[in-house]
Amino acid sequence: MSLEPDYRSGRWAMHFEEIDKEIVTLALMCELPLATPGALERVLHGDISVCGKEKPAAFGKLRGLLMLHYSDQAKAIEALGPEQALALVGQVVERLRERFGDRLGAPEA
Fold first, then answer.
1. Nearest CA to 15 among 68, 64, 82?
2. Residue-level pLDDT at 95
3. Got the DSSP string for 2-63?
């Protein structure tokens, strides 16, 4: 399947870029190693102890944005199909990883 950009996929890409950039900003503020295995699940379960700094307001917003990301990912899969939607999200994550590097934590080897 071709992943040629079109209006719809471009809008989804911009949407995920905005959400994920804010997630990264809040994670850095809370000193949360996003790329560390299990970190996202702990945030989604409300475990603030995963953070290096206790910032309840930022953590709450971060948790809400993570839930929004996953909800919207499911909608993008319905709109674009699984292959295109997951590739698009993967590209956004890769751009953020290039921009923020090791500050996101170490992914599983």
1. 68
2. 86
3. -----HHHHHHHHHHHHHHHHHHHHHHHHT--TTSTTHHHHHHTT-GGGSSS--HHHHHHHH
Q: How far apart are CA 58 and CA 86, in angstroms?
A: 27
Look at residue 106 and tell me whether its pLDDT is greater than 60.
Answer: yes
* More confident: 26 or 4: 26
**Using one digit for the tens of pLDDT, what is the confidence trace for 42-63?**
999 999 999 999 999 999 999 9
Distance from chain centroid for Cα 94: 10
* Distance between CA atoms of residues 4 and 57, nearest Å: 39
